[in-house]
Structure formats: C-alpha cells, structure tokens
Amino acid sequence: MTAPDGLPPLREVIARHGLAARRALGQNFLLDLNLTARSARIAGDLTGADVLEVGPGPGGLTRALLAAGARHVVAVEKDARCLPALGEIAANWPGRLTVIAGDALSAEVEGQLAAPVKVVANLPYNVGTELLLRWLTPPVWPPFWHSLTLMFQREVAERIVARPGSKAYGRLALLAQWRAEPRIALTLPPAAFTPPPKVSSAVVHLVALPAPRFPADPATLARLTAAAFGQRRKMLRASLRGLAPRIEAVLAGVGIDPTARAEDIALEAFCALARALDTDRGA
Ligand code: SAM
Fold first, then answer.
1. How much is the pLDDT for 125?
2. 4 located within any domain
C-alpha cells in the first residue's frame, strides 16, 4: 500500500535500497508515518518556512515535513546509502527538497536557507547535543533559526528543560533557557524506532527569543556556569574562587548566599552575577 504522498511504505524503501540500520551512525529509524507526521507538526506551521533537516536517513520525517507544506527542505545526510531513497522523495516534490551529502558538523548549509528557518532533526545523541550547543551559541543573536525541533534521549531532553533545584539542572538548561524557550513536546518509547534504542526518546522544541531573557556577556556567563557546575556539589564561594579575588562580596552584592550550590541558583541570578563579575573586573 502506498502512503498519502504516493511514495511506498518506509519498510519497502529500506528493503529495496538495502538500508539495514548501522549502529555506528546512530541509526534508529522512525517508520510509522503517524509518528513522523506528529513529529513534523511539533515544528508548527511550515508553509512559508525553510526547514533544515539533519540526518534524514530513509526519509520518513522528510516526507512528513514536505507533506506538511514546508516551502523548502534542506536535508544533510552522512550515510551515502540513503541518497537514492532521498532522491526519490526529491523527485516526488520537485524543487522542494535539496539533499546535501555530508557530515552536519562540517557542512555549510546556512547559505541555502531563507528565513524563517526551522530546524528539525532526529540525530544520534552525541551529534545532536554538539549541534544544539553550536546553534545556541552563535556569534550574533538572534540566530539563523526560528525554532529547533530535536529528538534526544529522554534524559538529555530533561536536562534542557530542567529547573533549579533538580539534579538535571545545569549548563545545558541555562544555555537553552537564556536565549530560547524550550519544552518537551513528545516522548517516545524505544519500540517506536527500528531497531529500538536502549532508552526512551523525547522531542524538544525550542523557540529562539528575540533577545536574551536577562542581559549578560555570553563569554562571562559561559565561564561562570562552567566553574559553578564543574564542581556542582561545592559551595559557590569555593567553586567560583578562581573567577574573582573578592568572590564572597560579589556574590553577596547580587543577593546570592556564598554557601549556596550551583543547582539552586536561577538563571536570572546567574546573569546578575555575570554582570557583577564584569563590573568587578573593570573596577
Ligand atoms: N530521520 C530519520 C528517522 O527519523 O527515521 C533517521 C534518524 S537516525 C536516528 C539518524 C540519522 O542521522 C541517520 O540517517 C544517520 O545516518 C544520520 N547521521 C548520523 N550522523 C550524522 C552526521 N554527523 N551528519 C549528518 N547525518 C548524520
């Protein structure tokens, strides 16, 4: 039976092109077209948007993005075996799918995309985290993307949306929440994928804020959170000692108890502390 886009079912595509999943490429495919459609819907209205898809594989999510009306999908895939299957999708949607063969960590893609850009990806966890960090720390803000809709291991998704006072709260939460609004939009059990991974997965949707939630210098904030969470069980007056000789006074000056620990400090207070450290250095 063909799918609503007129293309064959994904299992047939995989069998015909010999796309047995490769563990080294983190290949856990989503073959259920209802799930790919649900994942694409999380990215919101795609008509009038360009989509950057990373790791299309046999193209399940790619097909859902095109069926949902994406103006142009640019898809970067490292596994050359997937290119013929992706070529068939491109032929089915003339002029709307550009496939780039290569590694998303080094491919130049921004030049191919017109605003507004939505990024959608179901990637191996290590590549996804590395790309998320890059997308959250561009040289200028706002970034080239309007939103990121990314599948992660559930534990990583929870670290992105974590609030102060929880074990999952740390640098990833602060970075993601400082200049974007992240939420977990969908959780999926291992059985949703072929082959099933060991752990559950979750789709995180992040919308870029026009400006950071609270002012702070990005480099100072990065140094501060690295020091604070590098030794997260230590009191801040100890973990931050290397950042300023008068650290206890700087902490007290912004209303932070010097004996508090990093995981109890909210984003707003970290930003106030970053500003105070810069002022202290200039004094
Ligand atoms: N999007 C498809 C889906 O949802 O069924 C495939 C998902 S599978 C988890 C991850 C895909 O990312 C694979 O097709 C793999 O070949 C590709 N991939 C892995 N590392 C990559 C990289 N560095 N750059 C681009 N694609 C990569």
1. 83
2. no
